């Protein structure tokens, strides 16, 4: 019975490892797809800024994105099921005394699943944001070209409009960078404020200790003065006795 339970756990563990390896490869490819999608659209926009062709004709990349997203979601679902089975096994009766080690292994696999899920949703959200932005820009450019061809607006005005649009995008990027710098400055100032409070607390502690130190110094000075007077009196008496002895 114990051997059968051990084989069951090992089988589920191997499946979990296999699914994690597949997910790792899929997520790497998924991230590269998102990066290549962005760079491809940026390059196309730079080279064909005056072309009437819509920016987004990468339907193959969109289909690839949808396919990979479905595959990753399926793998995540399978891995979640394997983790649930492993959890049921660790909670079932008759599990050997290695339950603590099994729980540790299960927690590690759960952490890996959580990391993969977070990475997948983050990459997917970035991809969708890029695609939405490019769709919006493509629609704007298409409207501009339609307006230019339909109403006879000269190329100079169109170029100025496009430059103004690019300036707005650059301004938006600069604003985001400024906000990031302001947030970092705020964090630094908060940290410095904490350091100043700590220094102030130490200064107050030292200030509270100074009266006791001054009292101790005064006692030491009084004792030294008393010892000096005693020593001076002894020397004076000895000198007088020596003089009396010398003249008699």
UniProtKB/TrEMBL annotation:
Gene Ontology CC, one term: Golgi membrane
GO molecular function (one): SNAP receptor activity
Main location: Golgi
Subcellular location, record wording: Golgi apparatus membrane
Pfam families for the chain: V-SNARE_C
InterPro entries per UniProt: Golgi_SNAP_su1 (IPR023601)
Keywords: Golgi apparatus, Membrane, Protein transport, Transmembrane, Transmembrane helix, Transport
Membrane topology: Single-pass type IV membrane protein
Any GO BP: inter-Golgi cisterna vesicle-mediated transport
Annotated TM spans: 229-247
Role this protein plays: Involved in transport from the ER to the Golgi apparatus as well as in intra-Golgi transport. It belongs to a super-family of proteins called t-SNAREs or soluble NSF (N-ethylmaleimide-sensitive factor) attachment protein receptor. May play a protective role against hydrogen peroxide induced cytotoxicity under glutathione depleted conditions in neuronal cells by regulating the intracellular ROS levels via inhibition of p38 MAPK (MAPK11, MAPK12, MAPK13 and MAPK14). Participates in docking and fusion stage of ER to cis-Golgi transport.
PANTHER family in the record: GOLGI SNAP RECEPTOR COMPLEX MEMBER 1 (PTHR21094:SF2), GOS-28 SNARE- RELATED (PTHR21094)
Family to which this protein belongs: Belongs to the GOSR1 family.
Record-given protein name: Golgi SNAP receptor complex member 1
């Amino acid at each position: 019975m114990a051997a059968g339970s051990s084989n069951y756990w090992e089988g589920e563990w191997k499946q979990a490892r296999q699914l994690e390896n597949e997910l790792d490869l899929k997520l790497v490819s998924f991230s590269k797809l998102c990066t290549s999608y962005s760079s491809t659209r940026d390059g196309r926009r730079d080279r064909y800024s005056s072309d009437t062709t819509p920016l987004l004709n990468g339907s193959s990349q969109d289909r690839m994105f949808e396919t990979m997203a479905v595959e990753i979601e399926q793998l995540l679902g399978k891995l979640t099921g394997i983790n649930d089975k492993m959890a049921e096994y660790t909670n079932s009766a008759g599990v050997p005394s290695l339950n603590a080690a099994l729980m540790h292994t299960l927690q590690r696999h759960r952490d890996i699943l959580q990391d993969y899920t977070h990475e997948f949703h983050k990459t997917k959200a970035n991809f969708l944001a890029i695609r939405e932005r490019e769709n919006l820009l493509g629609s704007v450019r298409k409207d501009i070209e339609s307006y230019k061809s339909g109403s006879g607006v000269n190329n100079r005005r169109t170029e100025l409009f496009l430059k103004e649009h690019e300036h707005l995008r650059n301004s938006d990027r600069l604003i985001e960078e400024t906000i990031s710098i302001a947030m970092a400055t705020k964090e630094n100032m908060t940290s410095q404020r904490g350091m100043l409070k700590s220094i102030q607390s130490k200064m107050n502690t030292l200030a509270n200790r100074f009266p006791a130190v001054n009292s101790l110094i005064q006692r030491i000075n009084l004792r030294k003065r008393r010892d000096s007077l005693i020593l001076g009196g002894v020397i004076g008496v000895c000198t007088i006795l020596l003089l009396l002895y010398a003249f008699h």
